[in-house]
Design brief:
The complex is a heterodimer of chains A (142) and B (114).
Chain A: E1 6-13, H1 17-25, H2 27-34, E2 37-40, E3 47-51, E4 57-66, E5 70-76, E6 87-97, E7 100-108, H3 115-123, H4 126-141
Antiparallel strand pairs in A: 1-7, 2-3, 3-4, 4-5, 5-6, 6-7
Helix pairs in contact in A: 1-2
Chain B: H1 3-17, H2 20-32, E1 35-36, H3 37-43, H4 48-60, E2 64-67, E3 75-78, H5 81-94, H6 98-113
Helix pairs in contact in B: 1-5, 3-4
Classes of the chains: A alpha+beta (142), B mainly alpha (114).
Amino acid sequence: MGFPDRIERTVRTDRPVERVWDAITTAEGLGTWFGQSAEVDLRVGGTATLKWDSGDTARLRIERLEPKTVFGYTWGINGLPEDDPRRTYVEFTLAPDGAGTTVTVVETGFAQLGPDDYGKAFDGNTKGWAAELDELVAYLHG
Amino acid sequence: MADRASEIVAEAVFVALADPNRRAILAALAENGPATATDLATRLPITRQGIAKHLTLLAEAGLVAAEPGERRRVRYHLQSAPMRVAQQFLAALARDWDGPLAALRSHLDDASGS
């Protein structure tokens, strides 16, 4: 595993790119598989808002749109305040693969986390760290 | 910093943090500032020998550094740089894309079946 400024994942589906494009760019799609509801202003500079029943909300600022090929947005980083200027960039890329589609998602920008967050890491109790590391170990061995 | 070098730093941090006593030592240094091994032994339910052993490992991981002083009065303080490197690992790992992508695939399958 290289130093993770980025996460990259790929998944293949039997569905054609048109279907996948709708799933990742429409309120109906994003509000079904990703959030539990969604509003989407589909244009560069527009906002997509995803909501979960837990009360969590994610605001995506759309940065790149190449129909049926590239959907890119920035969003906030877990654990930072909502108005923090630091955001990660997520890019979905669709590629026809036979009758289906290969979906690649790349999220970059984690390396920008700085010393401020270090302080927050210590704010919680030490049990927080234990839980976090258990998850890390489970992930690494999973 | 090279990727491999960062990974080695992060690995040392995770090993250091895997022990509850070492986490307690780091938390005490973060809360109350630099302290000697004796201070820490007074404050925490850990023996003086245990404190010394853990401080050595934490120093090797770069998480604490000794301030110059008389041998028994050496104070240790936190160093944040390795923690920052490790935190980038945690942030990247916390963003789990496998779940959402599996949900996307099953959403596409369901929609086409109906």
